[in-house]
């Protein structure tokens, strides 16, 4: 799933390519992806892209005051095309194409989604806050307001595991399964540590690690073409998705346990005092 660094890199890429161009037309190939109907998607024809922004994991195209807001979900992606094929694409079948935006110079982009479980969501609204997922977002971890003091307020009294807290978009915007694993590994913190148990020193370390990890990932993605971002993310991860590999810090074997609707990866030596986590969904650190 694209997370904050990839969506930030996409927004930067699209500011350079799309801003200043008019929208010739929009083809909707997967009706299920379009979550709004007022204003209609046809309202974009003839308008110009004036900005591209990010809200957590949401991508926001400002098109003369209307906002095309996209959430790529687990298997969605944006593919830029310097030249959009002239031949119309037929909806249905195994075609992963969900939506195509034609710009006035012949370029444009496709929104695609692989697999059978569909989660790609596209909204056309007058204000980004009209999108429920955007309206409920927590603070952006790369924003100036995200300070150690704010993080202390967030964890205070929360009897929940820190892994789940970091993934909760209503608590902190933009961090998903992959970067929460990376942050907790760099902070040398168990993913099952209870948020309210964090000391002042823990909070300072976690805050610094969140900001540093995300900024480093954004910087690594800077200047890359849209199609290269997925590969860069994968190669830049140190523990997530690397079950069975050696920890780059200590050399221990990276392990995996189930967590919520997915799984997490961690290093026992770096994060849990050498003790493995029980592999069950409501697991707590073995004592």
TrEMBL record:
Q: Which Gene3D superfamilies match?
A: 1.10.8.50, MutM-like, N-terminal
Keyword DNA repair part of the UniProt annotation: yes
Question: What SMART domains is this protein classified in?
Answer: Fapy_DNA_glyco, H2TH
- In this record, what's one Pfam family? zf-FPG_IleRS
- Give the record's keywords alphabetically: DNA damage, DNA repair, DNA-binding, Glycosidase, Hydrolase, Lyase, Metal-binding, Multifunctional enzyme, Zinc, Zinc-finger
The UniProt catalytic activity note for this protein reads:
Hydrolysis of DNA containing ring-opened 7-methylguanine residues, releasing 2,6-diamino-4-hydroxy-5-(N-methyl)formamidopyrimidine
The Gene Ontology biological process terms listed for this entry are:
base-excision repair
Molecular-function annotations in GO: 8-oxo-7,8-dihydroguanine DNA N-glycosylase activity; damaged DNA binding; DNA-(apurinic or apyrimidinic site) endonuclease activity; lyase activity; zinc ion binding
- Any idea where the Formamidopyrimidine-DNA glycosylase catalytic domain is? 2-93
User: What cofactor does this one take?
Assistant: Zn(2+)
Q: Which InterPro entries match?
A: FPG_cat, FPG_N, H2TH_FPG, Ribosomal_uS13-like_H2TH, Znf_DNA_glyclase/AP_lyase, Znf_FPG/IleRS
Where is each FPG-type domain found?
238-272
Family from the record? Belongs to the FPG family.
Name used for this protein in its record:
Fpg/Nei family DNA glycosylase
């Amino acid at each position: 799933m694209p997370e904050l660094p990839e969506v930030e890199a996409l927004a930067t890429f699209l500011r350079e390519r799309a801003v200043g161009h008019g929208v010739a037309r929009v083809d909707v190939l997967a009706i299920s992806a379009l979550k709004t109907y007022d204003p209609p998607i046809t309202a974009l024809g003839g308008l110009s892209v004036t900005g591209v922004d990010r809200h957590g994991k949401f991508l926001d195209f400002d098109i003369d005051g209307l906002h095309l807001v996209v959430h790529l979900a687990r298997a969605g992606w944006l593919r830029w095309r310097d030249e959009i094929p002239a031949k119309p694409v037929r909806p249905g079948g195994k075609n992963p194409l969900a939506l195509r935006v034609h710009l006035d110079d012949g370029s444009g982009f496709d929104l695609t989604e692989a697999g059978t479980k569909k989660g790609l969501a596209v909204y056309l609204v007058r204000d980004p806050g009209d999108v429920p997922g955007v309206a409920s977002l927590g603070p952006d971890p790369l924003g100036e307001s995200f300070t150690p003091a704010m993080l202390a307020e967030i964890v205070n009294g929360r009897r929940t595991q820190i892994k789940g807290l970091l993934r909760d978009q209503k608590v902190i915007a933009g961090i998903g399964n992959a970067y929460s694993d990376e942050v907790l590994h760099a902070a040398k913190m168990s993913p099952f540590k209870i948020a309210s148990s964090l000391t002042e020193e823990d909070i300072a370390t976690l805050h610094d690690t969140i900001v540093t990890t995300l900024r480093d990932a954004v910087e690594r993605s800077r200047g890359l073409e849209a199609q290269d971002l997925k590969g860069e993310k994968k190669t830049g991860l140190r523990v997530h998705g690397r079950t069975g590999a050696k920890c780059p810090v200590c050399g221990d074997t990276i392990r995996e346990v189930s967590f919520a609707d997915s799984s997490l990866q961690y290093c026992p030596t770096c994060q849990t005092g050498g003790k493995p986590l029980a592999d069950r969904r409501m697991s707590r650190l073995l004592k």
